[in-house]
Amino acid sequence: MGKVKTSLGLLAASLVVAVAAGCNSAAPADSKLPKISIFQSKVEIAESLEALTQKYKEETGNEVEVWGSAGDAYVTQLQAKLAADEGPTIFSVGSGSEAEKFKSYYYDMSNEPYVQYIAPNMELTFDGKIYGFPLGVEGFGLVYNKSMVDPRNVTDLNSFQQTLEALKAEGKNGFSLSQEAYFLIGHIINTPFALQPDPQGFIEKLNKGEVKMAETKEFQEFGKFLDVIKASAVNPLEVTYDSQMGDFATGKTAMVHQGNWSYGMLTDYGDLGFEISMMPFPLAGNDKLAVGVPGSWVINNGASPEEIKAANEFLNWLLTSETGHNAIVNEFKFIPALTNIEANNLDPLSQAVFEATSSGQTIPWAMNYFPQGIIVNDLAPAAQEFFLTKDMTGEQFLQKLDEAWARAAK
Amino acid sequence: MKTKFDKAWFALFTIPLFFIFATVVIIPFAIGILYSFLSWDGISANPKVFVGMDNFVQLFRDDRFLASAWTSVKFTIFALIAVNVLGLVFSLLVTGGLRMSNAARTMFFMPNLIGGLILGYIWQFIFTDAFKFIGPSTGLDSIFFNWLLHPQFALYALVIVFTWQMAGYTMIVYIAGIQGIPDELLEAAKVDGANGWHRLTKIVFPLLMPAFTICLFLTLSGAFKIFDVNLSLTNGGPMNTTELFALNIYNEIFGYSRYGLGQAKAILFFLIVAAVTLTQVVITKKREVQM
Question: What is the ipTM of this complex?
Answer without folding.
Answer: 0.73
